């Protein structure tokens, strides 16, 4: 069945429907990653977004039990050029099309995605809608729609939960985390407590963490309550801290830096990221709509550790006084290169130093 | 700095190394470095490069040593000449004596690592020690020793005899119950009663990665491809597809990590191709081959992604770190450090020589195995797998006759099953036929070890073809067919009409081709793209490059015969057109051909070469002229019927047969500039050898210029039943049965080098009425101005036809040439 994608600027694309035949609204972004569609669509960082895939064929690797980044995808749509209906699970019953149907997410295939991406690269991200008919009514509705800014609340856990291990105790503050972070912590056999972002300093300190992770998450970090920044300001003085993605942006805000919205959101895994001190390049999945404003950094508090060699955007920060650091990119490699998994090694080294220091 | 070329063409050795060396030598000049080159391939363009001092000498350790001493070479770059150059250089290094002076340094790879690279067992051990997954071999003498191993190694196993007394002792053990019998049998086939075990990887998925690494240890992935055919079929003979589609991200990232680990272990400064075996069921991964030098995958990846692998590799070899590489202005400034992303699909198809051989009565074993049988490669570009596949098939065959839906109807069910298990060159058609006959996808996947994805795709293709066939003249069906890459010609076949009718019907209904750029950012950044492929979508990105352009039609895949020479010739044509300041457009689909080097042409169309594909490009570019090789008579006629200005590089329809073992073929060679005839020399051709006589031609040649259709080098041929090298022959009057033909391209290449005259460039200038005063002067004083080096000969290279083709009868090495050398020995 033919359905349509309409953009806020009035542009319309026709495509064939797959997934659910639902009408949705969301922010449209494009993604240049060639693999990892399942991880991408299940990553809460894409909450409320319609994702255009540059890779020409999506679905050929099926849906795998080991490739969920959250249990429930909350994207608002998937736009692809060609769809493959391959199922690889034991029942041979789950392919991308069925998966999206199950979660009431619409998709369009047979779209000139290259034209769409070339368009979006000029206009930047904008509101968009997937509808049956691209008539004036649908366009008016799109213009009138106000997209939610409560994406963190939509995706983060409301209750604490544990992912027990026998190693160091790591408290993860959840802003809509991706499973990749938990998998990496599991590699270090960490004993993990995941706390909602509404938690308090007392609650976290009562758990006596060896380290704290500020998780990834969707949306604009500036709309979160100030209590989150206060929480970070206190906790960074108490235990080693690692911020990732949204967690990095919050870490920057908590230390008085400011964010700049990117003219066009950047989603992909092919930009070289330089670790400034070693001049080593690495590649990692990036999904960002904001970057830390270099002008706003208080050099008495923070210094820049990583930058994107393509656009120069800040990709990593470290605190001058505390064992706290953060990265804009996703070092967990789910999906994406494993080049940057050393960030977790650095974090656990810091945790070990801290534990030793406290014990002595 | 001395480059070592890759020598004569052979199975798996087309023009990729020559193209690589040709483009990197000027780069060295820019750094103020002097380039030298040794090679013996007469079809080498690099040997005519002005950017280097060149030596046409056989690639022997002695010659290489001599050049090093003569020219005070302090650096050698073997990696651009591929495995052959690396092996020869390794030999030189091993033979180096104290008295030879200081050994030149090697760029790109240390000597220690070179030695490992050329020794599979040493490399395997090295990788295993580093904890990387390789296939390990276990040698066993007695049955009870095997018990321990049986517990460690997963089934299936491959067992073969150590020091075998018969050929091919390889056996696969699928079940433990079969072990005893097979073990005992194989043991008796060993001279020493020893048996080698390893994990059998036949049937696993083969995946290739191409990576770069710089001196600082920075690495990036250029591209990856997966073979549709499982391990057991040589990767060059496999249908392969890029990007990788059927692997999960997690698996592909693991492969990437292994490839990076290997690049670090080798301390590589350059590019590397790593082949993996992947077991989809168990998740196991094995490294099966490491190639830290330029090979065909490097060239394919360059073309498929738009990432300038070769240019970046030379920068890395001379020590420029990735983030400091300055690429020519026509690349985005960050291209060298961004991992290329693809928004298109590229299907690689091998081209086999079986058809042409069968036509000339040579029967060969057509079954595909781990020994390479294909002689050429084509790429099909599209936005879906089906589109890319259709275009690759059309590129491989020049026409759609062998792709007719009825082609495989005659095969029996038994034969079908046999060929599913033991695939031949026609396997894509066979798979489609199997689906047509109702075999289930999971059955087929199990039988063939091909990923189900491909069967679903072929099912789609079949449904598409059926729907097109059933809907004659239906515009919806036409649109659908065009969007999936079916050519006008194929649709015409379905609808029993002509391609012109289909073309007009599509035009009238606004079903228009859209060209998309091949560029490494997948649309993220505006790039200065110059490579395009056709698809049927909404946005067209290609507009006329200039009003004075010339379109050059490439020769497509290499076939047995003179493909390397044809590639050399067309590349020279492009280069001359550039020199004459025309804008140039090339159409081709062979990634190993030098015509597709970056920016040799202003624009490249990576397309099949059927008349319908060409006319669509013509509509966009409106070229002033189209240059076509003379053997493509149907195409020339079709283009002329459509009122195109066609310029012909003179060539016979088929590569001529060579002389028999008792004969000499003599040729009186002359150049025709469109008006007059200029005698050149006389050549003697015996089996496997071509030489030039010292004899000067004094009398005019009695040929009516009308007999030569266009400017070029021609020859009058006659045979004498004597194979002795002659000093002179009687030419006036020629009292033998003689005939006129355009000089075969291979001989033109040879003549260029022996005479130091660029006959191809002169032909191009003559065709375009651009011959200069100097040209005419040269032509009128050839006898005095041109020092022909008559001691140089062209001889057949030793190509192991029997290993690759297992043919029953002799193969005419002129008509089915694979490789030749020039030598003055």
How do the strands and helices of this protein lay out in sequence?
The complex is a heterodimer of chains A (360) and B (825).
Chain A: E1 2-7, E2 12-19, E3 24-31, H1 37-42, E4 49-53, E5 57-58, E6 77-79, E7 82-83, H2 96-102, E8 106-109, H3 113-123, E9 126-131, H4 136-144, H5 151-155, E10 161-163, E11 169-174, H6 179-187, E12 191-196, H7 201-206, E13 211-214, H8 226-235, E14 241-244, H9 246-254, E15 259-268, E16 273-275, E17 280-282, E18 286-292, E19 302-308, E20 314-319, E21 324-327, H10 342-359
Parallel strand pairs in A: 3-4, 4-6, 5-7, 6-8, 11-12, 11-13, 13-14, 14-21
Antiparallel strand pairs in A: 1-2, 1-9, 2-8, 3-9, 10-12, 15-18, 16-17, 16-19, 19-20, 20-21
Helix pairs in contact in A: 8-9
Chain B: E1 2-4, H1 16-30, E2 35-39, E3 52-56, H2 61-71, E4 75-77, H3 82-95, E5 105-106, H4 111-117, H5 120-129, E6 138-140, H6 143-152, E7 157-161, E8 171-173, H7 179-188, E9 195-199, E10 205-213, E11 219-227, E12 240-242, H8 249-265, E13 270-278, E14 285-291, H9 296-305, H10 309-317, E15 345-351, H11 354-359, E16 376-382, H12 385-397, H13 413-421, H14 427-436, H15 441-448, H16 452-469, H17 475-483, H18 488-494, H19 499-508, E17 514-517, E18 531-535, E19 549-553, H20 563-579, E20 583-588, E21 603-606, H21 611-621, E22 625-629, H22 633-641, E23 646-649, E24 664-672, E25 677-686, E26 689-692, E27 712-720, E28 739-742, H23 745-755, H24 759-767, H25 773-780, H26 782-785, E29 793-796, H27 801-805, E30 820-823
Helix pairs in contact in B: 1-10, 2-3, 14-16, 16-17, 18-19, 20-23, 20-24
Please describe what this structure looks like:
- The complex is a heterodimer of chains A (360) and B (825).
- With 360 residues, chain A is of the alpha/beta class.
- In chain A, 25% of the residues lie in helices and 30% in strands.
- Chain A has helices at 37-42, 96-102, 113-123, 136-144, 151-155, 179-187, 201-206, 226-235, 246-254, 342-359, and strands spanning 2-7, 12-19, 24-31, 49-53, 57-58, 77-79, 82-83, 106-109, 126-131, 161-163, 169-174, 191-196, 211-214, 241-244, 259-268, 273-275, 280-282, 286-292, 302-308, 314-319, 324-327.
- In chain A, helix 8 (226-235) packs across helix 9 (246-254).
- The longest helix of chain B is centred in the middle third of the chain and has 18 residues, at 452-469.
- In chain B, helix 2 crosses helix 3, helix 16 runs antiparallel to helix 17 (475-483) and helix 18 (488-494) crosses helix 19.
- With 825 residues, chain B is an alpha/beta fold.
- Among the domains of chain B are: 2-107, Rossmann fold; 138-199, ATP-grasp fold, A domain (Dna Ligase, domain 1, 2-Layer Sandwich); 205-342, 2-Layer Sandwich (D-amino Acid Aminotransferase, Chain A, domain 1); 525-649, 3-Layer(aba) Sandwich (Rossmann fold); 664-805, no CATH class.
- Classes of the chains: A alpha/beta (360), B alpha/beta (825).
- Chains A and B meet through helix 3 of A and strand 11, helix 8 and helix 16 of B.
- Chain A: GO terms for molecular function: ATP binding; carbamoyl-phosphate synthase (glutamine-hydrolyzing) activity; glutaminase activity.
- Chain A: Keywords: Amino-acid biosynthesis, Arginine biosynthesis, ATP-binding, Glutamine amidotransferase, Ligase, Nucleotide-binding, Pyrimidine biosynthesis.
- Chain A: Belongs to the CarA family.
- Chain A: It catalyses: hydrogencarbonate + L-glutamine + 2 ATP + H2O = carbamoyl phosphate + L-glutamate + 2 ADP + phosphate + 2 H(+); L-glutamine + H2O = L-glutamate + NH4(+).
- Chain A: Its EC number is 6.3.5.5.
